[in-house]
Task: inverse folding
């Protein structure tokens, strides 16, 4: 027994020595490798938190973080046997101190860090956590630039400002504004957020007209100077992207400057609702400063967990020993960040992850520095934990916690608020699925996305000044700078615009139209006219438009043609004058000829017409000869009747009546043909005798292009580029003309004398030119461009839209025509092309002749069929008589001749006589065929 006991004690002693040896070896290895290894499921895991505790966001986040740690540690369903230890560090609203605090936090071997709330600190710390492989879960850093691939270990657990800026852009577009002024803190969060806003507005054809940054911690005096400068600009839509500490100061200064009254629009980002929600109780003085402001708040769906958490809020604040502070959305995101880390750690540990840290050799080589970077160690399982965090999907207090491929929370959404009275009104929502809507985003998530403009909707807004009408969003600034309007200093056609000695220094049709349109606007437009050009030649209008696009002028008023290239750089109003390029040529009076009456028809037309007159006369004679005594008589008389009847129908003066049906049918058709021929002849002859003739063979732009004659173009007009670039006309053919006198001189010299064969110019100029030259020239062809004149403004200028509406009103009430008549009504010259005086050819009438010929042929066929039928019934008696009378020695030819003569005689007989003979013959035949009383036939008498 003792031996056995001794033996067992020896074995135990041996095993103990073995384990001590192994443990020593492990410790020696740990010392040699500077590595600390914990068991696979540690009892305690450190989680860091980094934010400014004495701030609107910090006072809401601290109790939420502590509550989340307590809830996780008390929940037996997660991290069994593992306790989360929260290590808090205060950044004290300082970028430098925040960075130092972050480095100190990393010395505590944390597996994840929650925070920071400052995007500036997040940019710096992201480089640290990238090296140490510690995931950084930020519940308040909303800078869009933090989503870049550069920050691998940064994971945002709140909404990205990228979506908030697109929500603001959608609101700007919804209310119809085109320009905003951005007021922001000049830090990483402010600059990057406003940069995204500019991109979002550009997609809506809007823009940031001015960026007004100020330094963090700016004094009230600095903010006052900033807002004074902003108030001198025309835009009245302000986007305020600041922090709660400086935001109220801006509203306070704006109130003093009168910038919280009607016509102003203020849009605040999520900082303002966070501040309002945190106030306990509500400060009425603060609410009076922000009346009518629109703000965005992170949308968190209503849920039982959210309501329970808010019910615990007062108790949580007491535990955190904070000053009175209200609840805001950042408390929910902070709470969910802890639970996100807990869920990810649970999966990480279940998948075999080990919480271990290693020293980085690079941190030991500090080049003699006294900074203790060696205390910073790398989390070995950081990459695995980061992958686990990216694939998490659960429902927290703030909604669904899940990340898209860009590591943003899915289903970003905001409440659109309107501050009225002592509270806020929810006027709608914004979600990434359907943008602006009055339906809660969680409902829209279940439906197909619909971002159409017709689907965008918000409830009514009470704007600053307690007005409900949507503000225009801009006014003319009160900085003493009127609108700079460039006016072409023309040397010709000064009826449209020209220099004037009396104010405003210019006059003309275009100026009167612009002034009348401006007077219809509901707001004053201070303006000054600046002549563009040296007055020696017409200015280049492309250069004028370019100067407006380059902001050297605010607008261009004059005879500026709206062309495709110009619309790419400026905005035009509604056209106030129709325009288009036309071709003008000189005309000459055609001397009358004694044989002019023959010119309307070609010789072929004359021949065919005369032949048809004779042909129809013969047809009518044939059809009427047997029935109508007016068409009978001696051969000479009948021949004269044919000629007389044929040509008398030309004047509808024929006195012979037609009695046959066929004759009347042919005559009706023929008289219709004669009517058409007479009308055409009269019109053509009138044109030949009265209309001026062109002095050249140019009939329009096509013949001008195909020719080689020189072409006149107004100096400064876009016609030069159009003819060269679009119609490929050689520049050597184009001649620049500066005035109407040069137009007339060039025409008088002609193409062979150094002048031009034609001029290409815009229709309004040509109308004046024709009137001033007593209509000595004519437009040939049609307008080959369709355009108009408009007033040019810088891109996206709201004045272009308002003046377009005013021009339409001028057109509707007749004022536009009155201005036109005042300046441009000098005569009435035809602006249509020359009447075509070419001869009328047969091809224009062959259809009529064909119809008439067919009608005559049909009538003759019917007539001769009827004649041959009668002749067959009449011919036996004639043949029998003729056979008895011929002598035995006569040949058959004589017999045939006698038969043809009998046919002609038959045709020449009257219809009544033929009918009487046939009737008598029929009666005799019936009498000879009837039987006698004794059954014998009667003998012939």
Result:
């Amino acid at each position: 027994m003792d031996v056995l006991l001794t033996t067992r004690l020896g074995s135990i002693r041996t095993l103990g020595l073995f384990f001590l040896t192994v443990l020593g070896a492990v410790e020696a290895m740990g010392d040699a490798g500077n590595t600390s290894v914990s068991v696979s499921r540690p009892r305690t895991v450190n989680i860091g938190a980094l934010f400014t505790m004495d701030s609107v966001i910090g006072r809401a986040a601290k109790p939420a973080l502590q509550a989340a740690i307590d809830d996780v540690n008390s929940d037996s369903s997660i991290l069994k046997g593992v306790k989360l230890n929260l290590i808090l560090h205060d950044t004290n609203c300082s970028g430098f101190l925040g960075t130092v605090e972050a480095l100190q936090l990393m010395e505590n071997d944390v597996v994840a860090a929650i925070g920071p709330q400052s995007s500036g600190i997040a940019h710096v710390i992201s480089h640290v956590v990238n090296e140490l492989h510690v995931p950084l879960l930020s519940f308040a850093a909303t800078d869009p630039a933090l989503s870049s691939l550069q920050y691998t270990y940064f994971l945002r657990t709140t909404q990205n400002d990228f979506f908030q800026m697109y929500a603001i852009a959608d609101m700007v577009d919804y209310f119809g504004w085109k320009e905003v002024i951005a007021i922001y803190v000049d830090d990483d969060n402010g600059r990057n957020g406003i940069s995204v806003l500019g991109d979002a507005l550009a997609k809506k054809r809007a823009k940031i007209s001015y960026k007004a940054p100020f330094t963090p911690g700016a004094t009230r005096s600095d903010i006052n100077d900033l807002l004074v400068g902003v108030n001198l600009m025309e835009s009245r839509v302000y986007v305020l992207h600041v922090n709660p500490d400086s935001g109220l100061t801006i509203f306070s200064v704006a109130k003093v400057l009168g910038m919280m009254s009607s016509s102003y629009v203020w849009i605040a980002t999520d900082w303002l609702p966070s501040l309002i929600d945190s106030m306990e109780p509500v400060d009425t003085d603060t609410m009076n400063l922000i009346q009518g402001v629109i703000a965005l708040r992170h949308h968190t769906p209503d849920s039982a967990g959210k309501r329970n958490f808010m019910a615990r809020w007062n108790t949580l604040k007491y535990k955190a020993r904070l000053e009175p502070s209200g609840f805001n959305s950042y408390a929910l995101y902070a709470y969910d960040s802890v639970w996100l880390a807990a869920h990810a750690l649970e999966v990480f540990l279940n998948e075999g992850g080990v919480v271990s840290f290693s020293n980085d050799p690079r941190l030991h080589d500090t080049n003699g520095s006294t900074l203790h970077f060696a205390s910073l160690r790398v989390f070995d399982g950081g990459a695995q934990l980061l992958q686990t965090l990216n694939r998490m999907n659960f429902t927290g207090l703030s909604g669904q916690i899940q990340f898209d491929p860009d590591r943003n929370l899915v289903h970003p959404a905001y409440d659109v608020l309107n501050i009225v009275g002592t509270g806020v009104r929810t006027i709608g929502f914004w979600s990434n699925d359907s943008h602006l809507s009055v339906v809660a985003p969680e409902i829209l998530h279940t439906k197909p996305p619909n971002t159409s403009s017709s689907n965008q909707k918000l409830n009514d807004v009470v704007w600053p000044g307690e007005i409900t009408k949507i503000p225009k969003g801009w006014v003319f600034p009160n900085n003493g700078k009127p609108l700079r309007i460039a006016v072409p200093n023309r040397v010709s056609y000064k009826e449209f615009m020209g220099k004037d000695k009396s104010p405003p220094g210019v006059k003309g049709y275009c100026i009167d139209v612009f002034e009348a349109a401006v007077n219809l606007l509901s707001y004053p437009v201070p303006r000054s006219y600046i002549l563009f050009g040296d007055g020696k030649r017409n200015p280049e209008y492309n250069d004028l438009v370019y100067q407006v696009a380059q902001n050297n002028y605010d607008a261009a008023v004059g005879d500026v043609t709206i062309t495709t290239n110009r619309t790419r750089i400026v905005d035009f109003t509604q056209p106030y004058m129709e325009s288009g390029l036309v071709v003008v040529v000189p005309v000459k009076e055609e001397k009358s000829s004694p044989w002019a009456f023959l010119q309307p028809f070609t010789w072929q037309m004359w021949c065919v017409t005369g032949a048809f007159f004779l042909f129809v006369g013969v047809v009518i004679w044939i059809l009427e000869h047997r029935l109508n005594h007016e068409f009978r008589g001696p051969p000479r008389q009948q021949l004269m009747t044919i000629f007389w009847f044929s040509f008398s129908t030309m004047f509808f003066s024929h006195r012979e009546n037609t009695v046959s049906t066929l004759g009347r049918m042919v005559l009706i058709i023929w008289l219709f043909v004669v009517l058409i021929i007479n009308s055409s002849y009269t019109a053509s002859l009138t044109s030949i005798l009265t209309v001026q003739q062109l002095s050249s063979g140019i009939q329009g732009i096509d013949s001008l292009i195909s020719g080689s004659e020189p072409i006149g173009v107004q100096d400064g007009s876009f016609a030069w580029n159009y003819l060269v670039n679009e119609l490929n006309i050689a520049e050597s053919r184009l001649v620049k003309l500066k005035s109407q006198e040069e137009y007339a001189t060039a025409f008088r010299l002609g193409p062979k004398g150094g002048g031009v064969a034609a001029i290409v110019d815009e229709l309004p100029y040509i109308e004046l030119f024709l009137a001033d030259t007593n209509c000595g020239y004519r437009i040939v062809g049609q307008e080959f461009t369709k355009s108009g004149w408009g007033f040019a403004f810088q891109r996206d200028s709201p004045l272009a839209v308002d003046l377009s509406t005013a021009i339409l009103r001028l057109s509707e009430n007749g004022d536009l025509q009155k201005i036109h008549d005042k300046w441009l009504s000098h005569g009435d010259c035809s602006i249509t092309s020359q009447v075509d005086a070419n001869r009328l050819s047969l091809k224009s009438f062959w259809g009529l002749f064909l119809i008439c010929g067919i009608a005559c042929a049909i009538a003759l066929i019917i007539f001769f069929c009827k004649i041959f039928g009668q002749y067959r019934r009449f011919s036996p008696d004639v043949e029998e008589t003729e056979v008895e009378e011929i002598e035995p020695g006569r040949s058959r030819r004589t017999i045939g001749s006698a038969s043809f003569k009998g046919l002609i005689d038959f045709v020449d007989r009257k219809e009544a006589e033929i009918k009487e003979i046939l009737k008598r013959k029929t009666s005799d035949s019936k009498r000879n065929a009837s039987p006698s009383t004794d059954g014998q036939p009667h003998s012939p008498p």
